Amino acid sequence: MKLTIEDVRSRFIKHFDGSTGSVYASPGRINLIGEHTDYNGGFVFPGAVDKGMIAEIKPNGTNKVRAYSIDLKDLVEFDLDDPKGPSASWARYIYGICQEMKARGVEVKGFNTAFAGDVPLGAGMSSSAALESCYAFALNDLFGDNKVEKFELAKAGQATEHKYVGVNCGIMDQFASVFGKKGHLIRLDCRSLEYEYFPFDPKGYKLVLVNSCVKHELASSAYNDRRRSCENVVAHIAAKHAGVETLRDADWAMLEEVKDEVPQEDYNCAKYVIGEKDRVLAVCDALKAGDYETVGQKMYETHEGLSKDYLVSCPELDYLNDIARECGVTGSRVMGGGFGGCTINLVEEALAQPFIDTVKAKYKEKFGKEPLIYNVVIGDGSRKLL
Ligand code: GLA
Prior knowledge:
By secondary structure, the chain is α+β, with helices and mostly antiparallel strands.
């Protein structure tokens, strides 16, 4: 069910002093192509979705934050000056954003807040980035006269992941959440931070997410391991080629030069990333030409790389990808960090319902549970609602 302002407001009133505050929203995201490229200085091609987080916030005249998670029915209070912060993982996102916005010159004061989300958790749709961006945007508005620019809001979210959550993520998720625009995907160059909006209205096609409902426990440490593998290859290449700072600066010849110096799994990761860099650009060209067959083919290639070289798929996601192929879906791949979550599928309109019916039945037969299906609607980024 679609989350509404009323859902949040009624709980805010109930759990605090009866008064109302300001209301903000920030979305989750999809990513058409460009996976695990952001922290390698490459390109990504995300868009915000019409699902995300809604938070109501009101300054409370103290130095304490009182936060209520409507979905978890959990209230946490922390002092803004407490160097440790709360232990509840959801509250650490809010605490981290408070610290990061203070570091960017915003005089954050205590506040009461209640929030809820309708972007599925652990589905690779960036529910955590939606939460971070929502509070970064809100604190900037409430306490900072909106003086912190949008990129810094995204970076505050990313820094929160690094310092307070322990995930060494790239900038894609927070960027998409803050910069999202209805009906548009955004190509971001994660090295220069230049970006371009692409109208996305694939005539005759739909984007469908299939949620495997697998949540991977070890996702954050495995994610950090992949990043380390890439950085190891870069260190070896940089020793021979001055100026190479990320895999974005590397090419196939450079990778082959260091092949025998690095572990096989690091080599495989770098191989995937260098290929993915080219695939994003190919997809942009294909989109401009209305060539969805090529877009889809690149998506399948990405899945192959993520599954066989980057090792961030799992049997459930590979199976979803196989079924998509069997059903004649134009493109399909694991989306986001991986280790569980969703596949993103580009499918001809006429094939969408038969594909959904087949994937539900076959997945249930093999894994004993039905996958969840979401039709993608590209929505707006962080904003004030009330
Ligand atoms: C997660 C991270 C992003 C990005 C993707 C993979 O969503 O938060 O920064 O690295 O994985 O593309």
